[in-house]
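Translate structure to sequence.
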């Protein structure tokens, strides 16, 4: 259970959007790296992906105006700015509590993300649950992980130990296990930044 004010979820420093490409490689868990890569290569994310990634970005300290600018920059590589402002900007403002029910929505934790199933053309959810073993193996290998580490992570995922697979990925990429058990992508990010920063 992660209360709204949990320091492991909410970053106390601002994160500029031009740092996200690098941060996605060094400090994102696989669920968020997958969404970031999909946004950057498809110039689009369907609604569930926008909500999962948008809330994560809010938690890591991306301000609403910068978030809007980033989503607009990517989406308008495929659609015009007017369509973005009419159809997509609302979700981002909603996430920040500026429109609609105006709640301070908390970034999603692992159990919620793991329970979400992505359909065709969607990239939300937990890749350790949703990717088949071959795709997961190829993905982790492309990130430069050693074959023995990849095998261990894929085996944990096959045994449905998704959060242990994620923690193992943290451990082999940071040379040290995460400070907290992996229960929340924003806590994974905080643990990573506290090592790297
Ligand atoms: Fe994301 Fe949690 Fe899955 Fe890791 S275990 S990829 S943080 S949902």
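Result:
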């Amino acid at each position: 259970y992660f209360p709204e004010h949990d320091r492991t979820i909410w970053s106390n420093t601002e994160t500029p959007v031009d740092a996200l490409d690098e941060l996605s490689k060094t400090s994102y868990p696989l669920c968020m790296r997958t969404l970031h890569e999909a946004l950057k290569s498809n110039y689009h994310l369907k609604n569930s992906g926008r909500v999962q990634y948008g809330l994560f970005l809010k938690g890591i300290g991306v301000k609403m105006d910068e978030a809007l600018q980033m989503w607009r920059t990517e989406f308008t590589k495929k659609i015009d700015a007017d369509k973005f402002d009419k159809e997509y900007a609302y979700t981002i403002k909603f996430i920040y509590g500026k429109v609609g029910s105006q709640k301070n929505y908390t970034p999603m934790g692992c159990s919620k993300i793991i329970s979400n199933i992505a359909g065709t053309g969607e990239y939300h959810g937990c890749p350790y649950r949703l990717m088949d073993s071959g795709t997961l193996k190829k993905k982790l290998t492309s990130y430069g992980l050693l074959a023995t580490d990849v095998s261990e992570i894929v085996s944990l995922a096959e045994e449905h130990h998704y959060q242990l697979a994620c923690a193992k990925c943290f451990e082999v990429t940071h040379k040290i296990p995460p400070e907290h058990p992996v229960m929340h992508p924003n806590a994974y990010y905080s643990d990573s930044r506290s090592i790297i920063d």
